[in-house]
Amino acid sequence: MKAEIISTGTEILLGQIINTNSAYLSEKLAELGIDIYFQSTVGDNPKRLAFLLKQALKRSDIVITTGGLGPTVDDITLRTIANTFKRKLIFDKRILFHIKEHFRKRGVEMPPINIRQAYIPEGAVILENRQGTAPGFILEENRKFLIALPGPPSELKPMFEKEVIPFLKSKFGLKEVILTRTIKITGISESAVAEKIEDLLKLKPPLTLGINAHPHEVHLKITAKEKNKKMALVKITKLEKEIKKRLGNCIFGKDKENLEEVLGKLLVKNKKTIAVAESCTGGLIANRITDIPGSSRYFILGIVAYSNQEKIKLLRVPSEILEKYGAVSKEVAEIMAKNIRKIAETDIGIGVTGIAGPKGGSPKKPVGLVYIAISARDKTEVKEYHFLGNRLEIKLKTSQEALDLIRKYLMEK
Amino acid sequence: MKAEIISTGTEILLGQIINTNSAYLSEKLAELGIDIYFQSTVGDNPKRLAFLLKQALKRSDIVITTGGLGPTVDDITLRTIANTFKRKLIFDKRILFHIKEHFRKRGVEMPPINIRQAYIPEGAVILENRQGTAPGFILEENRKFLIALPGPPSELKPMFEKEVIPFLKSKFGLKEVILTRTIKITGISESAVAEKIEDLLKLKPPLTLGINAHPHEVHLKITAKEKNKKMALVKITKLEKEIKKRLGNCIFGKDKENLEEVLGKLLVKNKKTIAVAESCTGGLIANRITDIPGSSRYFILGIVAYSNQEKIKLLRVPSEILEKYGAVSKEVAEIMAKNIRKIAETDIGIGVTGIAGPKGGSPKKPVGLVYIAISARDKTEVKEYHFLGNRLEIKLKTSQEALDLIRKYLMEK
């Protein structure tokens, strides 16, 4: 089975919006085991769209169009498809009712122009739009399928998932299930990860493993294609176990979890509270921790002591220590962590000091030099880092390492 | 003049990466006044790429390919183009030297496989790659141009700007200059902005105005097409003045400037220092302020007092006030702002308290209720906000309003 995608919209052709729909649809089709050979984009031009439609219907079994279903004159997809398939446009009462309901719920009267969206090509299967007004539809002719979807991703995605996938599965007897699991890793480079699982990366379908580098993280994606969900899960779990055996606690989470979320769960589970004393990260660590709903249960206090004066006054770093070792030093990081823990009366204290750049570096203490300290009743530890990158990257890498240090500390307990 | 873009890469067809190159190239071509009618994507398949190439060369004057110039077996663009144009691949010593230099500078030996990238179709114009190894190239035949560019955006963009644009300008005598300016607005909705400049949005080339909503900002883009830069600038400046007359200090900056950067410049200019006491924003305001290089000149201290206890202890909010009005109140925000200013001995203090959700709201104090206070020697002000959205959106909107309050205060001075 071969599919292709035609995106319509002059905004895409002019580069005013980035085509994320194609990537989304391609990924979903691949998961269904449907091959995609071509993606095309064309402006709001009936002639050129008709050309692409005819070409696509010749070479592919499934053609998906996105966009151009709106009520304005530049929305030409509906009419062009009807013409190409030589179908009349039929007024559909149920669609009009749905559109009117959509406006009524928002407390707005339906603009008369939207009546145009209640027309659908004769014989089409209507795809309900749960997020907007324009319905999608499917036309079948000579065992070829044309699937027309609206352009806004917020409308296209639920329509594809709730209406199109079940249709394709039943129509093409796609009984196989494709399940994926993403394993998330931090604190180790992509090549170091790859080295440890080289053999697994060579696995062939129905069970494969992919590797992707993200900022400061490496993601491994397991994909299993099986007759049913249970069998796929068994295969995934087995491979996941093997990966865990090799990578240990470098793995911090899976699928949609992020590091701050995993850390939050660990803090709640261990009934621990935390406070953070930041310098070079400027509040980023506190900000990431408090991005998690319910973080007030464990996050008590953050101090961003950007000046030496505040390090002395608020964090009670002795001025002799600051003078002797400098603000960016192992010693100062450690005192920051210890003191913030005492000040906030928490179980864990974090102290971070470093040079985020672009200025402020010296040959002895270059940009990217960072000290992160963790202080708990049973443990005090300071680590030295040399991060590369610009100011924002150094801030981000530092926050990532700090969060991961706490995670690892809690894991070892 | 008509152009089209062919993106190659199975990763794009499988939806593993989003095609940002097409949007970039389309925007640049539009700025040059070159029409784009089609964008296509094809996998690493020589037959299908050859098909697209031939089709594109028939209907367009300029065909741009992206990707597939790497050294591995799945990089098929170079060979496919050479075959389509019936040109031999010629070894080029200068390219090999450039590739070797690229590795030498990084202190790495060139893998032998990269020698493949030193071959180029006979008669091609070589496009230098300043960021990577694979050169791009231009082939001309029967007044049609094929421009082959590498896939990574970090390599493609500088190559297009430094090599391709000058080539196209000289080849097609594109003497007109297209200049753009983006005017950035915050604190007012897109529709409210549109209402004030409705007539200007209807302007026709050579001078146009576009409007775009971004998270918590509205951007207006002026585009002028003129015979030379000076004339374009005159037109842009005139329109910008008119917009400023209508929108006043809702405009915070232009082009690549962001709000924290503009604020930083104002603080330096006015020789003012700042400290922030945050609750619901959890460090985000301090983090945004310290994203700007050199912010240590004006940012002194941030306290994230997430618990009431810390508001009392560190920010010296009287417990009676907390009990009487609650932590999320006008009164507490004001004391937070005043006290952080005193504690850090700064010119300006900011106090923020609110309910970011999803939990913690009540009928009287719902999620999204936020108080922001600004305290300076000559001014104390507290504002109440009701923000919509999820936790992260409420945090972001609050930080945006807080930064903008300080900006407006400094503007009025």
Give a quick set of tags describing it:
six-stranded mixed β-sheet, 413 residues, Maf protein, Alpha-Beta Plaits, elongated, homodimer, Molybdenum Cofactor Biosythetic Enzyme, Chain A, alpha/beta, five-stranded mixed β-sheet
Describe this structure in words.
2 copies of one chain form a homodimer. With 413 residues, chain A is of the alpha/beta class. Chain A folds into 3 domains: 2-171, 3-Layer(aba) Sandwich (Molybdenum Cofactor Biosythetic Enzyme, Chain A), CATH 3.40.980.10; 177-254, Alpha-Beta Plaits (2-Layer Sandwich), CATH 3.30.70.2860; 259-412, CinA-like (Maf protein). Chain A has helices at residues 10-13, 20-31, 46-59, 77-84, 93-105, 153-171, 190-196, 198-201, 229-247, 259-269, 284-289, 308-313, 319-325, 330-344, 391-412; strands at 2-8, 35-42, 62-66, 89-91, 119-121, 125-127, 136-141, 144-149, 177-186, 207-214, 217-226, 251-254, 274-278, 299-305, 348-354, 369-376, 379-386. In chain A, a hairpin with an 8-residue loop joins strand 6 (125-127) and strand 7 (136-141). Chains A and B meet through helix 2, strand 2, helix 11, strand 14 and helix 12 of A and helix 2, strand 2, helix 11, strand 14 and helix 12 of B.
